[in-house]
């Protein structure tokens, strides 16, 4: 059972205030405020290059802000954060990466963090349980290099889940992932969110997760341009089953049926802009 963050700390799960990030000569994040409360499932949306990955990497402490503050579970990002309660799935890495590790070994590595440098007793059972949660219990002994891209992504999600996190930060967890893996992921997330998991997830489409998303934050040129209701899935295009949403469109259809203009197309590659 996942325990909501604020039952332990009384603080938001994620609290980003006035964050600026420079990467090389680029001023990528330009004064971001983002709060995620315990039990929320917040989608981070925006065009390519708008700063989504930079923001989540800053949230999990991979990138230092040049100004502003980030607190996780009530602690300033750094050694004080209880990292064992935070799961992170980065963007577009493969679980294989040329290392002949089995799925079980990759998942078990998720049990190691800051202060825990040895696997805990019972790690095999924990890894098996996490693989079971993503529908890969039968593949535990297989080298990850023999798994499909979607299955490898599921192994990385299991690596984040094995800690039993109360906060999960995911960067495009289903990008390029096959349909069965997307469905398995959505089913797992539905169960975990029901148990109180807090989620910050970068997405290009709400897709299978649409019903879980409680709030959407849209970035544009490193700034928040929308923070509120998630876009509503609309059945259109060619057939009635086409129900994913397009958060990159110039207007976000809201669940209420009203539409909010965001000042121009969001699916432009921002890097291509002058
Ligand atoms: N190491 C770096 N040095 C300089 N600029 C960088 C670096 N990494 C990213 N950027 C720039 O920062 C901007 C934001 O990149 P980021 O990856 O955060 O965007 P994103 O919204 O996640 O895009 P995508 O949807 O394509 O993943 C882009 O213009 C990118 O070129």
How would you describe what is shown here?
The protein is α/β, with parallel strands linked by helices and 274 residues long. It has one domain: Rossmann fold. The protein is built from six helices and twelve strands. A six-stranded mixed beta sheet has the order 6-7-8-3-9-10, sandwiched between helices. A hairpin with a 5-residue loop joins strand 11 and strand 12. The longest helix is centred in the last third of the chain and has 16 residues. Adenosine-5'-triphosphate (ATP) binds next to strand 2 and helix 2. Keywords: ATP-binding, Nucleotide-binding, Transport. It holds the Pfam family ABC_tran. InterPro entries: AAA+_ATPase, ABC_transporter-like_ATP-bd, ABC_transporter-like_CS, Metal_Ion_Import_ABC, P-loop_NTPase.
According to CATH, the homologous superfamily is P-loop containing nucleotide triphosphate hydrolases
Q: Into which percentage range does the β-strand content fall?
A: 15-25%
In helices, the fraction of residues equals 10-25%
Individual helix count: 6
């Amino acid at each position: 059972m996942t325990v909501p963050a604020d039952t332990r700390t009384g603080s938001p799960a994620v609290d980003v205030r006035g964050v600026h990030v420079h990467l090389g000569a680029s001023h990528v994040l330009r004064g971001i405020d983002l709060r995620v409360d315990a039990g929320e499932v917040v989608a981070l949306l925006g065009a390519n290059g708008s700063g989504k990955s930079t923001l989540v990497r800053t949230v999990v402490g991979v990138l230092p802000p040049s100004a502003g503050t980030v607190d996780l579970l009530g602690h300033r990002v750094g050694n004080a954060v209880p990292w064992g309660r935070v799961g992170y799935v980065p963007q577009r890495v493969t679980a294989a990466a040329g290392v002949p590790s089995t799925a079980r070994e990759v998942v078990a590595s998720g049990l190691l963090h800051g202060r825990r440098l040895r696997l805990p007793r019972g790690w095999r059972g924990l890894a098996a349980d996490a693989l079971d949660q993503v529908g890969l219990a039968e593949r535990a002994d297989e080298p990850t290099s023999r798994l499909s891209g979607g299955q490898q992504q599921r192994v990385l999600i299991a690596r984040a889940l094995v800690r039993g996190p109360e906060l999960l930060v995911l960067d495009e967890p289903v990008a390029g992932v096959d349909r069965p893996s997307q469905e398995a992921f959505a089913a797992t997330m539905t169960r975990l969110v029901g148990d109180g998991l807090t989620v910050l997830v970068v997405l290009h489409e709400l897709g299978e997760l649409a019903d879980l998303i409680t709030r959407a934050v849209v970035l544009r040129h490193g700034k928040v341009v929308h923070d509120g209701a998630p876009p509503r899935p609309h059945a259109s295009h060619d057939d009635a089953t086409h129900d994913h949403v397009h958060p990159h469109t110039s207007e976000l259809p809201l669940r209420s049926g009203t539409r909010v203009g965001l000042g121009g197309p969001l699916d432009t590659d921002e890097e291509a802009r002058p």
